[in-house]
Specification:
By secondary structure, the protein is mainly alpha-helical. About 55% of the residues lie in helices and about 5% in strands. The chain contains eight helices and three strands. It has a three-stranded mixed β-sheet, with helices on one face. A hairpin with a 4-residue loop joins strand 2 and strand 3. Helix 7 crosses helix 8. The protein is globular.
């Protein structure tokens, strides 16, 4: 991943999402030193690809960075940042009700298998799916779609 590629992928994200995001992105050439901690918490965890917080950090990974996966990861980590800055929207009654209603539509409680690790992971993956796979996301998870659209105030 070159800086030019990383910036190009970043600029491909919706402006409304970028405006709510962290202001620093780092690519580290080391493995995440906290991976042993995460492997105890998350089912089938192997290693970190990226982490969020006040900055997004991409860690050394066993495979080359793929453009679509980097885009999805940017969105996912921004989702965590939004969740934090909204006081834990992923555990709000709005989000929990949307999850229940969407389960009736899709037959799935979580947007992705990774999302079942926590409500915040489901929220972050929902943000990523909203941006990268919108047509399928809105048809399977219409209530979460409405909430995210309102949060992002776009399209």
């Amino acid at each position: 991943m070159t800086p030019k590629m990383a910036i190009g992928i970043w600029n491909d994200l919706p402006e409304s999402l970028r405006n709510l995001s962290q202001n620093k992105i780092v690519f580290m050439d080391i493995y995440n030193p906290d991976d042993s901690y995460w492997s105890k918490l998350y089912e089938n965890f192997t290693q970190s690809y990226a982490t969020g917080g006040q900055e997004i950090i991409f860690w050394r990974y066993t495979e080359a960075h793929q453009i679509n996966y980097v885009k999805h990861t940017y969105c996912h980590e921004i989702g965590h940042f939004i969740d934090y800055n909204t006081g834990g929207y992923s555990s709000s009654s709005y989000w929990l009700t949307a999850m229940k209603d969407d389960e009736k539509t899709s037959g799935q409680k979580y947007v992705t298998p990774y999302g079942k690790n926590s409500l915040s992971e489901d929220f972050a993956d929902s943000i990523a799916e909203y941006v990268t796979n919108r047509k399928e996301f809105v048809s399977r998870f219409p209530e979460r779609y409405k909430l995210i659209k309102e949060l992002l105030k776009n399209d």
